[in-house]
Specification:
The chain has 174 residues and is an alpha+beta fold. It has one domain: NADH Oxidase, CATH 3.40.109. The chain is 32% helix and 17% strand. A 4-stranded antiparallel β-sheet has the order 1-2-4-3, with helices on both faces. Helix 2 crosses helix 4. The longest helix has 19 residues. It is globular, with a radius of gyration of 17 Å. The two termini are 26 Å apart. The mean pLDDT is 97. It binds flavin mononucleotide (FMN). Flavin mononucleotide (FMN) binds next to strand 3. This is Nitroreductase. One of its GO terms (molecular function) is oxidoreductase activity. It comes from Frisingicoccus caecimuris. Pfam families: Nitroreductase.
């Protein structure tokens, strides 16, 4: 799938707006992800308030993409919806949703970036406060969105020395 290789992290965006229609399509792609026992415990918070972007940037210096992002979506888990409570599957479930969202954004011709939130306690605390997350709603990451200021090349990172056959260290391709 070409989109997988075309997806690159974009940290600078033009002023072209990202529409709610595009955001909805991206969230729809997130919700199409696989989840443990089909928990679908994800919650999506569309971030449009520039104050939230600014506040998050104060606790996460490597979030400068938020300075020009035209939209962003905070992906959280609602722990009360976990089918296997307390096991931490939500991290994998929400990560699968995040990746789907990045791919959908790429397919729509948008640039995107995964901004890490979990497990950094200061970022989690900041978002819990600014987005008023109730008890049991855990933030995983933010998908920043916008039109890229420049194209980044597609990438193939296949590394044959990290692929083994049956036992660790036994090369799959000889
Ligand atoms: C869990 C996770 C957290 C990340 N957090 C950040 C971040 O906070 N800021 C940032 O600029 N990039 C972040 N990235 C993007 C990575 O730096 C990027 O994916 C990596 O350098 C590979 O580049 P590519 O996405 O263009 O292929 C994150 C990626 C992942 C998967």
């Amino acid at each position: 799938m070409e989109t997988i290789f075309k997806r690159r992290s974009v940290r600078k965006y033009t002023e072209t707006p990202v529409t709610d229609v595009q955001v909805k399509q991206i969230i729809r792609a997130g919700m199409a992800a696989p989840s443990a026992k089909n928990s679908q415990e994800w919650v999506f918070i569309v971030l449009r308030d520039p104050e939230i972007y600014k506040t998050f940037f104060e606790v996460h210096v490597n979030a400068f993409a938020m300075k020009t992002a035209q939209a962003a979506v905070l992906v959280c888990a609602d722990l009360s919806k976990e089918q296997d409570p307390g096991q931490g599957w939500w991290i994998q479930d929400c990560s699968a949703a995040m990746e789907n969202m990045l791919l959908e954004a790429t397919d729509l011709g948008l640039g995107s970036l995964w901004l890490g939130v979990h497990p950094k306690s200061d970022r989690i605390a900041c978002l819990k406060e600014v987005c008023k997350l109730p008890e049991g709603i855990e933030p995983l990451g933010i998908v920043a969105l916008g039109e890229p200021t420049k194209d980044r090349p597609a990438i193939d990172r296949y590394l044959e020395d990290q692929v083994f056959l049956d036992t660790y260290g036994n090369p799959w391709e000889k």
